[in-house]
Amino acid sequence: MNKIIYLDAAASALKPNQVIAAEAGFMRKSYANAGRGVCARAVAVDDMVSHARARVANFINAKPNQIVFTSGATDGLNRVVNIVTGQSEYKKSATAAVSDLDHHSARLPWQELLCRGKIKKMFMCELDEIFDINSNKIPKTDFLIITAMSNVLGRAQDVKKIIAAARKKNLNVITIVDASQYVVHKKIDVKKWDCDFMVFSGHKIGADTGVGILYIRNPEKYFPDKFGGGMVMSVSKDNFVLNDAPEKWEAGTLPLTQIAGLIPAIDYLEKNRPNLDLIKYAYDELSKLPRVKILTKRDAAILSFVVDGMHPLDVGAMLGAYDICVRAGNMCASWIHQRLKIAGSIRISVGSWNKVADIKKFLSVIKKILR
What are the φ/ψ torsions at residue 188 (nearest 5 degrees)? Predict the structure, then answer.
């Protein structure tokens, strides 16, 4: 059987042995529900969740009560929309600003609000000549959505500078950061960013699918968007009293097995960031092929390209036939592809498991395809 060469880390990272062991050990030896029991095993699960929350908080320079477990970045981004528009002081005259760097999950919820008349206008943040968000031309708005790193172009945005510029226009602007790609490659500091909300998915950093992180700067300021078990302190016939954060944000059973894998995933990632020299090497070699047009910069965290005369999905399928896994299509990021005047692209992205030999094999197959 041929060895699979996995060059699709930006879609989802392969899981370190430490994560697999932690989750398997939890299910085999330690499983119980959190927040539901008083036996030693249930208390131990509560402790595990608490430790995972504290580790995530330390990872992004936050406080544990600011960390909410979600099912992923998409869930977090949609929940933020529901949270901020569900407040009693929310006005339909509010405006939002997005950009063409956004993933569908970051922008579509706001586009849907506009279609339903729940926001007055949606501004577009201007991109400069290299498709970075132009911090000098941030519109005055009530809500600003920032993609910290495009999953097509792979460039880290200066989130701190962008938010500072937005606050000069409107001190009370609510800022929402999609850090799904950024978190894999760069250290996040939510205090320095000065953001109000931030999300990322566990599966991008080597944890499991089904768990994500939602950071809320002022978790006691807002009213919850979900209701159920675990998020209330007391209930009467006509009223209820909420728990403090973070419990008030986590109605129902948490994704406990996935949470068990978060600490080893973060520990592993911090010591084993992707080797972006592999991307530079692929860039240099692909640049020599006349039919290949590279869309990303040499120092980007990923490499996206198109092949003249071939559909991206055909290229992806041919690579797959040689056991090389890449991503092909619009990456759930239609707007930047429209901006580039292409239907889609092919993307390679690396993780700690990738070696030079993987890139060499990829390059040899691309050359065969072009012949």
Answer: -100, 135
